[in-house]
Amino acid sequence: MDIFSNLALGFSIALTPWTLMLAVIGCFFGTIIGALPGLGPSNGVALLIPISFSMGLDAISALVLLTSVYYGAMYGGRISSILLNIPGDEPAMMTTLDGYPMAKQGRAGDALVISGVASFVGAFLATVGLMLMAPLLARVAFQFGPAEYFALYLLAFCTLGGVGANNQAKSALAAVLGLSIAMIGLDQTTGMPRFTHGNLHLMDGIDFLVAIVGLFAVSEVFFFIESHGKNSAIGVTLGKVTIPWADLKRTSGTMLRGTGIGFVAGILPGAGASLGSFLAYMGEKAFAKDKSKFGKGDVRGVAAPEAGNNAAAGGALIPMLTLGVPGSGTTAVLLALLLTLNITPGPLLFTERPEVVWGLIAALLIANIVLLVMNVPMVKLFVRILSVPSHILLPGVTMVAFVGIYSLTGSSFDMILMVGFGVLGYVCRKLDIPTVPIILGILLGNAMEDNLRRAMVLSNGDWTYLFSSAISTGLWIAAILGFLAPVFLRKFLKRPEQPTEMHGD
Amino acid sequence: MKADRIFGLVLIVVALGYLFSATQIRTSFMSDPVGPRVFPYLIGIFVILCASVMVLRPDPNSEWPGLRTAMQLAVALAVLLTYAMTIKPLGFLIPTAIAAGILSYQINPKPTTAILTGVGLSIGLLVVFKLILGLGLQPFPRGWF
């Protein structure tokens, strides 16, 4: 079957000692990055993109390294959720609800192992789903013309802020801000400068990496200074870690259900790992006959969201690879990575550069297995690393951010711009304006405008061309529904209390 | 006044400036039917719409820092900007040590730990990035070695 020969190709690329070593290193550092409060998968991958590029890694190696970091960070988020009641990243928030009570009951080791296995199940099955579905979707994607792509980007923007944020106007505002920043630079079609005001540095636009690192990592420093780093003290001791086989067997159904829900949630543009974990938890609670222990240390409350968020992370890769539309904040960062490596996602990726796609899929499978093997025995080591005090960690992260951007561009202007984005990120988070749509706007703005203009060229200025095909009309309807629905569904989707402020996924 | 309203008004002003800049975009003779100005116009109008919603229906204020913390944040901002401007002429080690030290002091106000952190991070990061990862960082200012 086609899939197996492609998979064999992927493994032949990904299974070399060098890439395996990169996968192990990536998983290790990713877990640490995900576990430390204040960093997260988006931050970690964003910080490492400029560095891996400057290191001169080729496409496959950089992809393997950074996807291992990405998956590692998803695993890592649960460590601080369970032990500190602080979600390492937003998707890990649901794990705190039952994980921390379990830890307080002395079952921290059990919780960690179960979430590790659940994460593995979710991620592994999602990668299998990715293997099966992505080529199919790629074939559909060939039917997409500029009008369809424009509608698709619109759908992504409309749904992205939607379910998570509290205020639709603010998500829309964030998206439009991102788009407006993307307009700075030389216009692609006519070559005329826009909004550069004669400044040479702005001629080639604002680099999305500068924006990402500034908005995510640098703004974090301001928050930490404000809170004086009061967020890291381990209150729970970790005894001997054994594998709770009975619990694992009991939660197997939970894991499968969580995976299914999470995977579907991940594929939808605009939904991401946080939605996957949230829906999986709610679904499991609704499905369970005995709801009494949820929120007090039920193992299913740990297994479901973990399977869900890892499955969603895998599912979110599907629209990203086949259509080039990120499904969430972290996949937006992955898209940034692919663009840095000169790989344009889309249906052509599967036909022109199949070794990249299948190598990536093989790398994901390897990363999953490595993470499972590493996490169970090495939990104690990670816990020790978690106690790095924040007054060493945060300056370190900031300096890494500067080094990364500086090694990429060597320009003081870009670094000042990065600090500016850090301030913007701080202000936006204070005002409850989501920052992910800003990043999405910067990444996709030029492509979106391009498609609009191309569609108009094809139709000679006829604006109804945008709605002419069934696919594009369907996408427009989905976009409008996706934007308006959260206004009505607000009460069903109200989240439980968040312990700290984290950025959305 | 609520923060949302202030921010909304600021954005409306900025958006008006943006729209004005958009009118200055030069169109060349070889262009597509839409032209380089339409998308910026649309975006500017949208920003004004969304910012107006923010002004008319502001969310409750979240906690903004008090005066002391605001001063600290301003200092941190100044440090980061100075760092961005001095890293080129002064090399890596000195600005990093000073910046990391000051940031560390702000999070945890103990001078000796802050100084140690600053110097330690500076040297440690240099070792990791230059020697291990091979990035091109200049440790010292140009005149010196």
Written description of the protein model:
- The complex is a heterodimer of chains A (505) and B (145).
- Chain A is an all-alpha fold and 505 residues long.
- Chain A has one domain (2-489).
- Chain A has helices spanning 2-14, 17-35, 41-54, 59-84, 93-141, 146-160, 168-182, 208-227, 245-250, 252-267, 273-287, 299-323, 329-340, 347-352, 354-386, 390-409, 412-430, 436-459, 470-489, and strands at residues 185-186, 193-194.
- Chain A has a two-stranded antiparallel sheet.
- In chain A, helix 5 packs across helix 10 (252-267) and helix 6 (146-160) packs antiparallel against helix 18 (436-459).
- Residues 496-505 of chain A have low confidence and may be disordered.
- Chain B is mainly α and 145 residues long.
- In chain B, 70% of the residues lie in helices and 0% in strands.
- Chain B has five helices and no strands.
- The longest helix of chain B is centred in the middle third of the chain and has 24 residues, at 67-90.
- The model of chain B has no long low-confidence stretch (mean pLDDT 82).
- At the A-B interface, helix 7, helix 8, helix 16, helix 17 and helix 18 of A face helix 1, helix 2, helix 3, helix 4 and helix 5 of B.
Task: Write out key terms for the chains shown.
heterodimer; A: about 500 residues; mainly alpha; two-stranded antiparallel ribbon; about 75% helix; B: about 140 residues; 2 domains; about 0% strand
Broad structural category of chain B: mainly alpha
Tally of domains of chain B = 2
Order of helices and strands of chain B: HHHHH
Q: What is the count of DSSP helices of chain B, taking H or I runs of 4+ residues?
A: 5
Number of domains of chain A: 1
Q: How many β-strand runs of chain B?
A: 0
Give the DSSP E fraction of chain A (strand runs of 2 or more residues).
under 5%
The largest β sheet of chain B comes out as:
none
Helix content of chain B: 55-70%
**What fraction of residues of chain B sit in β-strands?**
under 5%
Low-confidence runs of at least 5 consecutive residues of chain B: none
Whole-angstrom Rg of chain A: 22 Å
Distance between the termini of chain B: 56 Å
What value does the Rg of chain B take, in angstroms? Answer: 23 Å
SSE run of chain A:
HHHHHHHEEHHHHHHHHHHHH
- Strand line-up in the sheet with most strands of chain A: 1-2
Quaternary structure classification: heterodimer
Helix fraction of chain A, binned, reads over 70%
Largest sheet of chain A: 2 strands, antiparallel
Overall geometry of chain A comes to: globular
Total beta strand runs of chain A: 2
